[in-house]
Write the structure tokens for this entry.
Amino acid sequence: MDDFATITQKRMTGGFRLENINGKNLHVDPGPGALVRTHQFGLDPFKLDGVFISHAHTDHYNDAEILIESMTRGMTKYKGHIFGSLSVIKGYKKWGPCISKYHLSKSRYHLLQKGQTVKWDDIYIKGIKTIHGDPTGIGFQLNFNDLKISYTSDTTYYHKLPEYHKHADILIGSVIRSGSDRIKDHLCGDDFSKLVEKVKPKLAIMTHLGMKVIMNNPEAEARRISKQTNCKVIVAKDGMTIDLNKI
Ligand SMILES: [Zn+2]
Ligand SMILES: [Zn+2]
């Protein structure tokens, strides 16, 4: 989300939740409002097994600590896993840390770096390079039961991005502007189209839309990319649910 979309809350900024991936629930990039939205959309904040934070920008980490508190039943139980970039977990130069030592103390935490894979029981999480303000920021590809879910997080388009996300069944991209309206450190519509074209996912989801797209028919942009790539492309909406068995 750009700062204005976050501050005005024209679109919610709570990130997204992957439910029942091999029995586990993972909250990804819990920005401002993640806890409130969890309640609002009828999900149980206690039923959380993992929290993933891609980088040290508030729109991605703001509610991480409170979700960690709910995951650990108010820090009374040793439970759950925290996955995050170096900046998020340990801090890197002026970025982070975003989670206090106290909040890291009741869960297993994993520092995820580009190209590394972390095994979470029978789920594999591969860290994927981003080029963004936070130099240690990461996207991921999650692999379980032959299903691959990829998330770009915030990044500039770069040559190897499609290769790192290849074979994704579901590709979730942070797309901040439409068409060729590129701003520094982020994907625009044309970048996402190029990525979708090369990765050929069963479903591509545009999220993290900036104000300009939100106010200007984002669905039309999704249709345009869909036509260009011959893939199903949708725009994430507040409270949207997608059944992974039906893609
Ligand atoms: Zn962001
Ligand atoms: Zn960012």
